[in-house]
Amino acid sequence: MPTDYSCQVLTAGFSFHRKPYIGLHPEGVKNYLLRLQTDGRCRARVDGEMSLVDAGDLLLFSPDEPYELRIDKEQNPMGERLVESGDYHIFFNGDWVDEWWKHHKRPNRIKVQLTESLLTLFRQLVLEQRRISNPYPEIASYYMRILCLEVDRMLSEHPTITNTNYVAYEIKSYIEENASSLFKLEDIATHIGISVSRGVHLFKEAFGKSIMQYTLDVRLNMARERIIFSPMTLEHVAESSGFNNYTYFHRVFRSRFGMSPKEFRVIHREQM
Fold this sequence. Notes:
- By secondary structure, this protein is α+β, with helices and mostly antiparallel strands.
- The chain has helices at residues 95-103, 116-130, 138-157, 166-178, 185-192, 196-207, 211-229, 234-240, 246-257, 261-270, and strands at residues 8-17, 21-25, 32-46, 49-54, 57-61, 67-71, 74-75, 81-82, 85-93, 109-111.
- 46% of the residues lie in helices and 23% in strands.
């Protein structure tokens, strides 16, 4: 494994698109790129072909790999075609990174869980890059190394999907792709082609929590990122994150994070 070489973060940001966007880099982006889709959908060139990118897709590109990103209208579960795409993106380089990249065979895309620990690493890198005065740039370097090693761990621990848990992962993907819209258990069951009771049982058996508990987790994580990084009103954040009324959103947000959405925004904006 790489040891004590350089690792430099060039750009780290969070973007939320509601208008079409095209990024074309046929000769590569000249640096390494990690891009984590957190909300909505877009399309990117993966393994030489334009593919749909969903929430939970982590894209990895080396400096000379052709890169193409297109954000346009995609159909949501309600049949509407909307532009909606949120992502973290980090451009980085260095001798340490060169050695890290060569240590594993790296696909352009891996499916990851949008866990608190993973999102925190991306968020901290964004916050470090936004500091006006930063006498300790090496902090971002260490965060970046941790993120790279976390990618290695995800690659090594990526679950093998068997026949017994395939349905559970199908349900999980449906939740992550559609969390910003209102849906019922019956909608998931119809989409997968199973009964509600069987879907509920298989999901709880595979992940240790109910379908609705996991849906709430995804929606709260989605709302939290939008509260910190987007200019949306808190009411719009709640609506666009799959909550059908602000009173309920306020209550569950305070219960999860120990403060109101407004207090959460103020505290985290002061750190930026």
